[in-house]
Structures are given as structure tokens and as C-alpha cells.
Amino acid sequence: MTEEDRKTWQAVQDEVRRCISQRIWKPGELIPHEAELAQQFGCARATVNRALRGLAEAGLLDRRRKAGTRVTLNPVRRAEFSIPVIREEIEGKGQRYDYKIFLREMRVPPPDVQARLQLSGGISILYLQTLYTADNLPYAFETRWINSNAVPDVLSADFRSLSPNEWLVREVPFDGGDFTVSALTATEKEAGVLGCSQGASLLALDRTTQHDGQIITSVRLAFHPGYRMHTRL
Amino acid sequence: MTEEDRKTWQAVQDEVRRCISQRIWKPGELIPHEAELAQQFGCARATVNRALRGLAEAGLLDRRRKAGTRVTLNPVRRAEFSIPVIREEIEGKGQRYDYKIFLREMRVPPPDVQARLQLSGGISILYLQTLYTADNLPYAFETRWINSNAVPDVLSADFRSLSPNEWLVREVPFDGGDFTVSALTATEKEAGVLGCSQGASLLALDRTTQHDGQIITSVRLAFHPGYRMHTRL
DNA sequence: GAGTGGTCTAGACCACGTT
DNA sequence: ACGTGGTCTAGACCACTCT
């Protein structure tokens, strides 16, 4: 552990990272407390705290009052994915983004969607099917339910220049939701619009969005075969 | 904006969150600068900074020096998944975790794996096939390549009480890697061990792990049909 | 009870990017 | 040039939790 004359929290963090990565501090081991490290690094305790807090958030350290700070035993626990904002994703590859709305009607959702949207039976809401394309090739097929009772404005929305997704992001505030990734087997319908064979394996993202306790929308995106979500650790 | 007598950064953060969620501050809009908010909340600027930094990391705010702080236009961009540590995942559901190693041999990897592991051709390394089970039902099928040149100890490892994954986590330090999620179509082999039909859609996680510039291991997990990754936003 | 991390403060200076 | 966020400090008190 060399004595650097740096005092930025980043420098401290890098040094601590090195100690962990090189197993100078081994998994499960207690590391020196903040005051001690502050003295070693020649900086304020707050600076050390800033550095260690970041590493704890990243999952590399376990910190508990009185118990001290330990190197996490099983350090890989989280992966952060950027959620595809389809237009950006496509345009980011230099391809031409477009979308086509196949279906737009009021409909009574099936029981599972009713449950997800916390609706009672028999109420019909807005249902949309949209295909996103990149350079005119099918990219993802979106089926979306919008709780039009909670968002009445959506009924008069024009989705010509703004996709349903972007319209919602722009017009309707939200404060939570959930997100599921799964593999699905292409139905005849999905195969048809995505131009793949029926039975193909597709990556599916299901998402619900809520605001102030109400569920606003429930959407499934089925991506073209070969689509991948990627991230660095 | 009510004047609270709280001064914790969490309280400030909650209040700012409320202003965003209720569109008191609209997407794209400039919000008051730190000094002003500090005065409004009756706290130090550092406290406001702490609160806003958190929201910026969460993707709700865009902050730039001199330009000030704005409400993000497209706030949903990241989702954090906890990476499945299979044993914990299974035991967490109250099920019995077990695994069985089907194959363990030295083998020359195919070209794509060679590339991923940054190996030159003709070198044989350790190859493992493992099935993880929950209550004796197939859970996930793992195919793993381990760069046994970088980790010679692995050749004498006994994987009876510790799965290859857990052995590596325990014995080999690492400092990076990457992570891919995709949908795959079950091959005959995968269908056989997972007890599903050939051609079924499976969620696949591919991961490489590196340390000090070297790629240590490349692993693919193919989960049983119906498996989902879930997270809240 | 006592040791450790968690947070707040008031002030200061710096880094950056808009102007 | 100047306004804004980014960071550092030294000290203080608090909150948790282990013993």
C-alpha cells in the first residue's frame, strides 16, 4: 500500500479496489476502519467514507456499524442493464427507426393482464399492437395495454409522430414499476410480424408502469431472434 | 413545496422526487441550484448535493456544471438485476439445492469461445457441464470453459462440495467481465438434461470473467423453461 | 458500554462548460 | 469571465449493533 499524495475519493477508491482485487484484503476479511484509512491516505474521514460507500453500493464491500467493513464474500450480485429505448437503440446503430401500429382498439383484457393492472372485470381499456423496425427490418413487436381510465387523454392521442411508448413517457408521470425478462416461443402472430418461423425463441421484456398507486400501462416487447441484452460488470 | 424542519439528505431527496413525480418540475426543466435549495430546505449545500447526486445516479436528473440541473427527459434507462447465485436463489425459495457434474475434461474450445477467451488456437483447456437442480428438478444447465493456463489450481480442484462457480468465486480474484442475456432454442442435449422438449425457448445468460487483463472463464447458463429475471424500477 | 459507520455543517477551493 | 456542480476539510453528533 503505497502512500500517495492524492486526496481525491477516486484515488482512495482505486487503491482500495486494488487491495481487494489483488487479495491483499481477502474476501470476508475486515479492513481498517475509516479513521485509520483516512490517516493512512492523509485525507479527511469523509473522503474515505465517500470512497467506501461507492464500493459498498457496487457490492464489493459489506459495511455495518460497529461491526466494521468487510470484503464481500460473493461480489457479483448485480448487473445494471440500460433499458432499451427502442428509437435510441436503433438510431444509435445508425439505422433508420420506424414503427407501425397494427391495432388500436378498446378491449377487455384477459384475466392475467387484469390482475397486473389491478382492474376489476369487464372494463375495457386501450390495447395496441406496434411493430418497431430498423432499416425496415422487424426489430421488436410490442403489445401494450393502457389503463385509459387513469389516462383518459390517451384516447385522443395521435401516435403518428410519437410512438405509444414515447407519448406515455412524455405525457404521463410515473414513479415505479416492474420489469421481467423471459424467453418466449413465437406464436404464429409474432412469427408473422417479426418475419421469423413459428416456434422461434424470442427474448421478451414485460414491464408495468405505475403512478401514485395506479398501474398506468402493461407492455410486452418481443424482440427479433438473435437480440441480446448486454452489459459490463 | 412545504418547508420541512428535516435536514437529512433522504428528506431532501424525497421532496425532490415528489416535485419530479408530480410534475411540479417538468421533464427537461431547470431546477433551482444547490445553494438555493439548501436555503429553502434550511440545510447545508453538501446535504442537497448528496440528495441530488443520488437522483442523478438513478437517472432522474441530469446535472452539468454551469448548465445546472434538469429533470431527465427520458427517465427510465437502467434496470438493476441481481445476478443469480444459483445456490442462494434455490435455497431462498426453500428448495433443496444440488448439482451434478456431467462432464469434466480438457478440450480445445471452438473458435467463438477461443475468441471470447482470447486464446490462440489448438490450446486445450478445462471444459465442464453441470446441471443444477431444485428439489431434484432441473433448474439450469451450465456449460463452462475455464482458462486452466491462467488458473492451474483448477485442475486439482474437487468440485464435490463446491460447484465450479463457487470454487472460482472463492479461489480466483477478478476485476471485470461481461454479461449477456438472450433467448435460445433448446438443443437435443439441453432438452435432455433439462427435461423439456427439443426446440423449447430457454433464457440464457452468458458471462465472462476476467482478472488483470486475462479472461478466466466463460460460462453459459441455460435455465429451465419458464424461468424469469425480475426487478422493480 | 463502546466502537464503528452514517450524516450534517460551514466554509473553501477547484473543474468545467456556457457565455 | 463567471456561474454551477464537484469535492475536500475538520469537527461534531447520531444510530446502530456487537459484546
> Strand sequence of the main sheet of chain A, in spatial order?
5-6-7-10-9-8
Report the CATH superfamily of the largest domain in chain A. Answer: Chorismate lyase-like
Q: What's the Cα radius of gyration of chain A?
A: 24 Å
- CATH class bucket of the largest domain in chain A: Alpha Beta
| Structural domain tally of chain A | 2
Helix content percent band of chain A: 25-40%
> What overall form of chain A do the CA principal axes indicate?
elongated
- Which residues of chain A form runs of ≥5 with pLDDT under 50? none
Number of strands of chain A: 11
Q: Which CATH architecture of the largest domain in chain A would you pick?
A: 3-Layer(aba) Sandwich
Q: Which chains share the greatest interface?
A: A-B, 50 and 51 residues
What is the assembly state of the chains in this entry?
Answer: homodimer
Average pLDDT of chain A works out at 92
The CATH topology of the largest domain in chain A is what?
Chorismate lyase
Distance between the termini of chain A: 25 Å
Main β-sheet of chain A, in a few words?
6 strands, antiparallel
